[in-house]
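User: Here's a chain of 353 residues. Predict its fold as tokens.
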Amino acid sequence: MSTVTTAACVQRQPELLGQTVVVIGGSTGIGLETARRARAEGADLILTARDPDRLHRVGLELGAGITAFDATDFVRLGRFFGELPKPVDHVLVTGPGPYYAPLAEFDFKAARRDLEAHILLPLQVARVAASKVRPGGALLFMGGTGGRRTAPGFALISALTAALPAMTKNLALAPVRVNLIAAGDDFRVIQFTPPGSGCSVIFGKNVTASTPGSAQGLYLIVSDIEGARNELLGRGVEITEVFHDDAGVYAGTDQPYLFGRRRVSGRDPEHRSYRSFASFSDPDGNGWLLQEITTRLPGRIDPASTSFASASDLARLVRRVYGGGTGWDGAAEMNDHDAIIPRRPREADRTIK
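Assistant: Prediction complete.
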């Protein structure tokens, strides 16, 4: 019986070869540098900006398609996406720098323009561009970090800084992937939210005090382990072969994971959910595992169809779960949704009045 100890890799290909990237605000700053990097990775570019002369020069430099207009003219924005000749793969939305002003000098017209550029513009792009993005593509919004600290003149930018992550997370419930980058001198964060997911993965600089590479055993759930592994291989990621556990044998010398330190090569022979894995490390050395789940175990309460009329109803459910013979019967008896709540010592049961 063999174990998995090596990682496979393939020669790296340009990551965006054959893809089309749209950059709103692509003639300067982060938008321009992103466009240059995307072009270097093989992407076809479509750039927009307000300044037609500067946009023209950038278009010549990068061999990009260009359209000059003010992106906060939402009628014109809708027409731009409506006139795209074919679907695109990624849309990056950048904007002007944030508006700072002490309350006594606050210009509400400038504040409205800032609100349009940093909140309403991403919302408009999500509405008019989502149908133009191919499956697997993404909308990418730019945020900032200045509003994370308290200072005179930060009232508006603090509100926008707090609003953007929440807005992005909710927009990501749509079929298209929506991500947020918050850039700053000593702080940078990418909030990555898979399509349809209620959870995000955050990467960044100075977002944690942990040493880079110290996070191990981070799980990414997939429905097709081989397909996900092949996609990572195609992007140049070194990843192990697919492996499964050794039927309850937890001792061993392999890198630890959910089922111990014994990795057996190949998918789970019975193709059981939760039992097939592949692992890789990110550039910082943090350890990630793909875990294949095709059928979830009982115990997930669907928030769309489960509700409690009162606190007493919820308390009654908890009493049944804790007081039942197996720990699960009470929840199944209450309705069709199983509530998996671990059993605790009997002393804890007595604290529920």
